[in-house]
Design goal:
Blueprint (H helix, E strand, L loop, with lengths): L5 E10 L2 E11 L4 E5 L6 H8 L7 E6 L2 E3 L4 H6 L2 E4 L11 H6 L9 H14 L15 H14 L4 E5 L7 H16 L3 E6 L2 H7 L2 E4 L5
Parallel strand pairs: 3-8, 3-9, 6-7, 7-8
Antiparallel strand pairs: 1-2, 1-4, 4-5
């Protein structure tokens, strides 16, 4: 078996006196979809926000290639090839699709048309019907999610964390997302799929981690 891409070891997180995660340990391997399953409040999103650098664990470690990594911010996570698509998107509505994707990733003089062609090619390669020159505020929620995914792909992510990704999608959009996930992991990347929908888990997951009461 391949070595894990990322390992979480004994992650514990408190909010005041409330335990959000207690001694959580699991690994994610290249080329697999790992489903993180559990009811609301089970600690799924919290442990993933720790991996993505939005929260800091009170104890425990994150390892890559057997080495402990310090992830203090999403910028640190993205530098390691880890991205997270949260339930509430972090897009700028007044900017175009292209502007949102390259924001913070491209510096100096920008050839807008060249960047738009680059984004269109990226979208088409992954089966996404997205127009690079459209303003985000004019896009349906399902298309905005695709823009978030394209932003992660543009940053060369190798591990994509998706928090309840089908909650905002129609059944047809959900099927497009599932096709993308299968293609993405077939290239040797990894996906963590946070959900409480068992049908989706059985359809897409290679392995399942069940969380309850933060454990």
């Amino acid at each position: 078996m391949k070595p894990p891409f990322v390992e979480l070891k004994n992650i514990t997180k408190y909010f005041s006196q409330v335990i959000a995660n207690k001694d959580v340990s699991f690994a994610i391997y290249p080329g697999e979809v790992l489903a993180l399953l559990g009811e609301n409040g089970a600690g799924k999103s919290t442990v993933m926000k720790i991996l993505y650098g939005l929260y800091r664990a009170d104890s425990g470690n994150i390892l890559m290639d057997g080495e402990v990594k310090k992830i203090d911010s999403p910028k640190d996570a993205m530098a390691l090839g880890i991205s997270m698509i949260q339930q509430h998107f972090s897009l700028v509505p007044a900017h175009t699709v292209t502007e949102n994707i390259i924001l913070g990733n491209v510096h100096g003089r920008i050839d807008r048309k060249a960047r738009e062609r680059e984004i269109l090619e990226l979208a088409e390669r992954h089966g996404f019907d997205v127009f690079p020159d459209k303003l985000v505020r004019d896009l349906a929620v399902g298309v905005q999610q695709k823009v978030e995914i394209l932003k992660a792909l543009y940053q060369k992510t190798r591990l994509l964390i998706m928090d309840e990704p089908t909650a905002v999608l129609t059944p047809q959009e959900a099927e497009v997302l599932m096709r993308f996930v299968r293609g993405f992991v077939a290239e040797g990347n990894s996906v963590i799929f946070i959900t409480h929908k068992l049908r989706e888990v059985m359809e897409i997951a290679d392995r399942i981690v069940v969380m309850r009461n933060g454990m």
